[in-house]
Amino acid sequence: MSTPNVSLIDVATYLPGAPLGADYYAQFADSDALRDNVMFRAPRYRHHVGPDETAIDMVERAAAGLIERHGPDVLEQVDVLITHTQVPDMAFYGAGGGIAHRLGMRPDWVLDLHNGGCAAFVLGLQVARQLLGSGAGRSALIAVAQNAAGQVFDQPGVRRKAQAAVPGDGAAVGLVTVSERSPILDVVCRTYGEYAGDMTLTMDPPRKWWQAGPGEACIGFTESKITKVLARGNRQVPEVAWAVCDRIGVRPKDIGLLVTNQPNRVFLRNWREALELPTERHVDTFDQCGNLFGAAIPINFDRAVGDGRVAPGDLVLMAGFAHAGDFAGAAAVRWGGR
């Protein structure tokens, strides 16, 4: 019995609020030893989640695009719901159950993925492909919400740091079905567990993240950690991209469109060069949206489709890495058009 083709049929996205310019952070800027580091060269704009806006709200607003294009019943038929939220609204569980209820879904599978980080959409494609390909259902929804910029990074003490000006918020959903329309040709995901403890939160005075205290939590960056993350990211994304291309029998320079996460401009440039791709074949919304974490890949792909940068039949390569380099993934899709 042959395995059925599983396709990424469509993506829909949401960016909260009006764009915030670089001058927003300039008014708070403080002395910071890392301010001149290439890791923290700020985008021109980014979006922030609203003060009372939840991850479920963001996903619902992203899903509106799917409903508009595919009809009001498209989500009722979903068998598998896969979610990733950068900052869960509740500490003890993910958003999957709430998303299913809000969208009127009754899926057989609800999976909240935390380890995928900035490559969560690729991990979601792998999980959906495996489940649908094995007969667990006919359709899946991948929902990703990045909501750290307007919450963690906009705390009064944190917004003075160089790291605060880089992230932006947004959400996206991807519809995956058993069909031959836009086949997911292959997916490669790799876990580098030896780096799993290298991304940390820091507070002053030190405490565990859930303990009360006066200091606000931010990411514990140091020059040494940044050097390691840059080296890992520069290596891992091209590695998984090459691995997928090898498995489907193409060279990276022959793909139609590269879609990645976008931590900063340095990574974007280095990944293009490593894969021998011109700028016009790599989607880059960094100056409009900042670092979108796990939402970057689907938001960037949606932007490329809307702008006419990818045509039916084009080979799309999606790739990214997560956290301090503990996970990386790449997926190849033969886009069938919207």
From TrEMBL:
<feature type="domain" description="Beta-ketoacyl-[acyl-carrier-protein] synthase III C-terminal">
    <location>
        <begin position="245"/>
        <end position="335"/>
    </location>
</feature>
<dbReference type="InterPro" id="IPR013751">
    <property type="entry name" value="ACP_syn_III_N"/>
</dbReference>
<dbReference type="Pfam" id="PF08545">
    <property type="entry name" value="ACP_syn_III"/>
</dbReference>
<feature type="domain" description="Beta-ketoacyl-[acyl-carrier-protein] synthase III N-terminal">
    <location>
        <begin position="115"/>
        <end position="193"/>
    </location>
</feature>
<keyword id="KW-0012">Acyltransferase</keyword>
<keyword id="KW-0808">Transferase</keyword>
<dbReference type="InterPro" id="IPR016039">
    <property type="entry name" value="Thiolase-like"/>
</dbReference>
<dbReference type="GO" id="GO:0004315">
    <property type="term" value="F:3-oxoacyl-[acyl-carrier-protein] synthase activity"/>
</dbReference>
<dbReference type="InterPro" id="IPR013747">
    <property type="entry name" value="ACP_syn_III_C"/>
</dbReference>
<dbReference type="Pfam" id="PF08541">
    <property type="entry name" value="ACP_syn_III_C"/>
</dbReference>
<protein>
    <submittedName>
        <fullName>3-oxoacyl-ACP synthase</fullName>
    </submittedName>
</protein>
<dbReference type="GO" id="GO:0006633">
    <property type="term" value="P:fatty acid biosynthetic process"/>
</dbReference>
<dbReference type="GO" id="GO:0044550">
    <property type="term" value="P:secondary metabolite biosynthetic process"/>
</dbReference>
